[in-house]
Amino acid sequence: MKTSNFIFIGNHFVTDFVNTRKNVKGARTELLHDYGDLMDWLEQSGKSKFVSGNPDSLPSSRRGELFQNIMSFRDDLEQAFVDMIREKSVPTFITELINKSLKSNGGYLQIEQSEASVALARYYTTSQLFVLFLEEAALFFASIKPDNLKKCENEACILYFYDTSRNQQRRWCSMEKCGNRVKVNQHYHRKKNRIQ
Questions:
Q1: Structural domain includes residue 87
Q2: Spatial contact of 170 and 161, defined as CB atoms under 8 Å apart
Q3: How much is the pTM?
Q4: Is residue 185 very low, low, confident or very high in pLDDT (cuts 50, 70, 90)?
């Protein structure tokens, strides 16, 4: 099985999508290089089950166009995150962009029934893949508290997360990575200052 270098720490599809870039040794590193990477990420995010049809059935030019549109939207989302953390409100530009894009696109609803329940799910054809990202973003911005969207406090980290902790005091993308590094670094400097 292929090991994943994707990061799923954001507590939401949209924050995890923005986190498809990371900081590696001080350099901003892209994790999605092409349409195939995007489809792998969708599979690992659990959303590929809502895309009907063979993703490879689209002509390569259409796959390239979809990939570029989705990556451009990721840039818009990241800028919205920066603005939202600074202003503590959802930026108008992102809601206008999502609304404009959704007017000309759409998915389709299906009833999913099991022995235990009946649920409604929205599906997308492969040619409507961009709509999945648009609708997830629309649902995200409509349902969140802007104060709970945070950037990791490690200055070297570029990852975001939606804080769902009980007291909204989460500070790092992951305690194992950034949290421990910061604490070890602080301990080292305190110990060093005591010796001097």
A1: yes
A2: yes
A3: 0.84
A4: low
